[in-house]
Amino acid sequence: MNFSNEQLERYSRHIILKEVGAKGQQKILNSKVLIVGTGGLGAPAAMYLAAAGVGTIGLVDYDKVDLSNLQRQIIHRTKDIGKDKVISGKETINEMNPDVNVITYHEWISSKNIIDIINDKDYDFIIDGTDNFPAKFLINDACVFMKKPFSHAGIIRFEGQTMTYVPDEGPCYRCVFQDPPPKDAVPTCKQAGVLGVMGGIIGTIQATEALKYILGVGELLTGYLLTFDALKMEFRKIKISKRKSCQVCGIHPSIKELIDYAGPQCDLKEDHK
Amino acid sequence: MNIKVNGNDQKIDREYTVKELLDVLNVKMKEYVTVQLNDEILSRDDFDKIIVKDGDTVEFLYYMGGGSR
User: Fold this and answer.
1) Vertex B69, ends A61 and A36: CA angle to 5°?
2) Edge-to-edge, what's the strand order for the sheet holding A125-128?
3) How far apart are CA A62 and CA A57, in angstroms?
4) Is A37 close to B68, i.e. CB distance below 8 A?
5) Which residues of chain A have pLDDT under 50?
6) Which residues on B lie below 8 Å from A196 (Cβ)?
7) Which residues of B are less than 8 Å from A41 in CB distance?
8) Where are the transmembrane segments (chain B) (predicted)?
9) Partner-chain contact A155 B69, CB within 8 Å
10) Do B69 and A181 touch (CB under 8 A)?
11) What pTM was estimated for this model as a whole?
């Protein structure tokens, strides 16, 4: 292990933890995490993972920073309005921690690019910080096919949920939610609103899961759906089971190829109306 | 009879199918809710066949998007 003096000091509060130590910090520095969406969830997740010293962070987003993002997407600043989110995110991370190599993917994920993006750096863990169901199901299916662990999350109003998929160890997102809901059946943050801190709370849990996975410590939210109600200040950890009839990870999977449900591009166009 | 719904005790007057229970309890977004009965996630096609009995544990799980924009 070759830590510089600066690294020893920067990560001293990690290294002193018996669950981390110098070995664990080295694992973090060697790790590669892909964050899809640099919004409400992805922003805080990226920032904590960068501060922790995750060696390679991939950021995927095609969007540009909008004034209405800044109430919760804390990786972006007022000066960044109009900038590509991946560039703004990369700049913030570089300022926070020079140990992190940020790879940017200025594109929307689809069946055509997601496997290449994950393979690009052979990412160890994927964080779903997207805001739409086509992307959430695409990430799930790609991770099941590629045997990659990932953290799902969603936030709306004063509520949030998250679960962690680990290949062969528990249910996938599709075990719980079989298909995407019809468009506009479930409100988005834009339609329904979201308290800014929700992304911070849930996105930071996603970052915690990534770090625990990298370190191999503790118990992940695999086989559990964690729900959070900020108004009641209540967390519930709901045990969930693998569904034998799951279309993608069940006994007789019917989905063998990635599916592009209605693309996020449509939403983007609507955004700019 | 008593069942547990999303962690809370709930009294119901008799056994119901899952489909009926969604109406009786006035569950929100009943067309899209995922139902887990005693640790088993149910297929939507079975909602009108499976009966919720005394002592059962029911979880209603909701889609949650959000996150980015």
Assistant:
1) 35
2) A101-105, A56-60, A32-36, A125-128, A150-156, A159-165, A224-229, A234-239
3) 16
4) yes
5) 264-273
6) none
7) 66-68
8) none
9) no
10) no
11) 0.94
